[in-house]
Every structure is written in C-alpha cells, then in structure tokens.
Design goal:
With about 290 residues, the chain is α/β, with parallel strands linked by helices. Helix content is about 45%, strand content about 20%. It is globular and about 50 Å long.
Length: about 290
C-alpha cells in the first residue's frame, strides 16, 4: 500500500479509465470499429471488450512511464491478462496502480442530479479487490443543474461510500461529474466546490481521497484541493470533450492530471495493424501525459 500511495501521489502520468460497463460498452466497441453484429450475447460483448482492453494494456507503449493508474470494470477485474488477474498484471508488470469501478450506475434525474444506486455487495467486492492488489475505487454521480439540494446529496453520498472504502484500507476516487452541457455549469462548479470543501473538513483517518472532476470553466478552479492534505490527487475527466480540447483545458489547470476514457481510446480501431495501433496509442498516452505534467 505504501508503494502504491507513493506512486499514485507523486508519479508522473495520468489515470487510464478502462471501466466502461454494461451500458457504455456497446458505444465503446462501436467507436473501436466493432458493431453489435459482432457479438450475440452480453458474455460475447464482454469477451470482445476485454480483448480490446488487453490489446491496450499489453501494448509496449502503454507503460508506467506515462500511465500512473488504471480504472477497471468488475468484469475486467474478474478476467486475466497474459495469465494473471488484470489488476495484478497492471501493478506487477507495468507499475500501473489499479482501481475498481464499484458503482452500479445512477438513479433517475431528481433535483438536477443523478445519485448512485445502492451498492449492496460493496464490502465483499472491496475485500476481494484488495487481495488482487487493487489500490482504490471509483464511483460516479452526475450533476446537470445548479441545484443546491441536489449537489449536496451527490457529495454526501460520495463521501458516505468513500468513508466505508477508506475503512477497508483503500483509496476512493470521488467522482461527482458536472455535465459539460449544463447551462449553468459555473454555478454547478461553485456549489460543488463548497460541498467538497465542507465534506473534506469532516474526513477522519490516515488515508486520503482522490477527486475526479470535470474540467472547470475557470482555470485552476480546484487548485485548493491539489494542495489539500486529505486529497492525494485531483484528476480530470474528459466528459465528452475531444482529446485535443481535453488536453488543452487540462494543461491550463496546474497540478491536475487526466483520467480520460473516450479521449484515451479516440482513434484506436480493431482493424489497425499492430504497428498502427501502437503508434496511435503511443502518441495518445504521450499527449495526455504531457498535458498532465503542467
């Protein structure tokens, strides 16, 4: 744990978000050049996306030199890469710190936000993940409007789950995503920052948290969290921005590193040759790492 804390807290690079789950997997595969006709069941779909992820993580250009962490879907954690559990392959072979997406999606929109659905088996999943070298977790909520009550509920729920995760000796990625299309995005961010600040003030224990936040309207808007003793890292989600836009915005937020999903896999195609795939992936990770280095 100490080695992973040091790597995650001080390592250069970014967190690769490889955690597309059931609902987002078909879109991820379609962008990769594989349409729904290529699989006939959920199991075949997950086989296909695992093959894509395996191709990414085993590529010689995907290393700890540019990638400090990777977020995995439960189905990916339950599978192997080159004969090892995926998380252990990442940590032991590549020195990439593994995280597990633990949420089961979100409830319907209410008060301008979507809070997370219950996670009844969280304790069991945390224990197993920790035994497989998983360092921390990730869980996502979404904020669509500057509704004070709704945003307070989102942040309170994130910290409620986060406190349990910390009690298991793991580091939670707190992810209250602000929709990039929100008409009052700046108001959402103002309310979010206030609530995050308040929740941090009441956080006990030795282990820190990580914040994963939408790239803000105002540069360096979350700077105080980059310097907060209870926050290990502040990372940015791409949220639908293109890789170019994401990198440009990220480079203007000092101390924040990337945790990109769509922006990471943009341009990767199933039919690419080994050389072309590796070249595209290599240029991508280098550009995201460079934007994260500011």
């Amino acid at each position: 744990m100490t080695e992973q804390i040091e790597r995650m807290g001080r390592g250069s690079g970014f967190i690769a978000a490889l955690d597309q789950s059931g609902g987002s997997t078909p879109k991820a595969l379609q962008l990769y050049g594989v349409d729904a006709s290529a699989y006939n069941s959920d199991e075949e779909m997950f086989d296909t996306v695992h093959a894509m992820r395996t191709r990414i993580v085993t590529d010689p250009r995907f290393t700890g030199a540019h990638v400090v962490g990777a977020i995995l879907f439960q189905n990916t954690l339950d599978r192997e890469v080159l004969g090892q559990p995926t998380s252990q392959y990442l940590w032991r072979e590549k020195q990439i710190v593994p995280f597990l997406k633990v949420d089961y999606g979100m409830d319907e929109l209410a008060d301008g936000v979507q809070i997370m659905k219950p996670i009844p088996d969280l304790d069991e999943r945390l224990d197993r993940a920790k035994s497989l070298d998983v360092f921390g977790t990730k869980m996502r909520s979404v904020i669509k409007e500057g509704n004070g009550d709704g945003i307070a509920k989102v942040v309170a729920q994130q910290f409620e789950f986060g406190t349990n995760i910390l009690a298991h000796g793991m580091v939670p990625i707190i992810e209250p995503e602000v929709d990039i299309n929100a008409a009052d995005k700046q108001d959402c961010e103002n309310l979010l920052r206030d609530n995050l600040r308040a929740q941090l003030a009441g956080l006990d224990g030795d282990l820190p948290v990580i914040f994963k936040l939408t790239l803000p309207e105002t540069d360096n808007f979350y700077q105080e969290f980059c310097e907060h003793p209870k926050v290990l890292r502040v990372v940015a989600l791409s949220g639908g921005y293109s890789r170019e836009d994401s990198n440009n915005k990220l480079s203007n937020n000092q101390g924040v590193i990337a945790s990109f999903s769509r922006a990471l896999t943009e341009g990767l195609q199933a039919e690419q040759s080994v050389a072309d795939f590796s070249a595209m992936l290599g240029s991508t990770v280098e550009s995201i790492a460079a934007a994260s280095a500011t």
